[in-house]
Specification:
alpha/beta, Rossmann fold, 7-stranded parallel β-sheet, 44% helix, 15% strand, globular, binds adenosine-5'-triphosphate, binds magnesium ion, DNA_Partitioning_ATPase
Length: 234
């Protein structure tokens, strides 16, 4: 079933947060999810080890450049969704994961540095599309946006993306304490106590709209043929 990867060559763009939000939303709808944790910080693996768990989610963190495409392809046969959280760089794991993704989500914060990191991934996708001779569907999600106002930096990033005809999701991921707190308390947003974490209701609404938009794209994307771009071990 669909493979959705999160990539931005710039660190700290919000990939891990966006990947976990999607995984927990999908699992809350009763689906089986496999997350590939290719982030060297292993935040999702640490989250998975917390006492409060999320039913239906399994996490794989033993990954190599040579094995990742096969691992992803196998997982996609047994899971309803495969979600890949990638490192904030360009390497063989990133290239191989993108080459077998049905959808690549590029999280971009409202900063020109993030937009440049996103542009690197867009260029890499173009190169990979030539190698695998298939389109790799991709979109941008704006992250850590301000709930109340659109900052000048965010507006500049939006203009930059729309000038290049890039598919930008309607729903940005807003800056919310609840999204950070998932990594501390474990589980999904449904498990967070509104008395302990502020803005939980708003966070749930935001995550649900965001996940619906990602899933709509992932489900309508044509299924990928298996392909291993680079077999060189790290
Ligand atoms: N929507 C959000 N609301 C609040 N905090 C956020 C949000 N998105 C990200 N953060 C915070 O920003 C920091 C970076 O986010 P995250 O780890 O998701 O980025 P990343 O792209 O995966 O980083 P890396 O490249 O290091 O893997 C973290 O401290 C995270 O808690
Ligand atoms: Mg990360």
């Amino acid at each position: 079933m669909p493979v959705i990867s999160f990539a931005n060559a710039k660190g700290g763009a919000g990939k891990t947060t966006a990947a976990l939000l999607l995984a927990t939303e999908v699992a809350a709808r009763g689906k089986r999810v496999t997350i590939f944790d290719a982030d060297p910080q292993k935040w999702i693996s640490k989250w998975h080890e917390l006492p409060r768990t999320c039913k239906g989610i399994s996490v794989v963190n033993q990954i190599s450049p040579a094995s990742i495409t096969e691992q992803i392809t196998q997982a996609s046969e047994t899971s309803d969704y495969v979600i890949v959280d990638l490192e904030g760089t360009e390497n063989l794991i990133v290239a191989n994961a993108l080459s077998v993704s049905d959808l690549v989500v590029i999280p971009i914060q409202g900063s020109s540095m993030d937009a440049r990191g996103g542009a690197k991934i867009l260029t890499l996708i173009k190169k990979l599309e030539k190698i695998v001779r298939q389109d790799i569907r991709h979109c941008v999600v704006l992250t850590r946006s301000n709930a109340a106002v659109t900052t000048r930096a965010m507006k500049a990033v939006q203009d930059f993306l729309s000038a290049q005809n890039i598919d930008v999701m309607m729903t940005p991921i807003v800056e919310r304490a609840a999204f950070r707190d998932l990594f501390e308390f474990g589980g999904g947003l449904a498990n967070l106590d509104p008395k302990m974490v502020s803005g939980v209701e708003k966070a749930r609404e935001n995550a649900s709209l965001y996940a619906a938009e990602v899933l709509e794209r992932a489900i309508s994307a044509p299924k990928k043929r298996w392909y291993n771009v680079f077999r060189r071990a790290s």
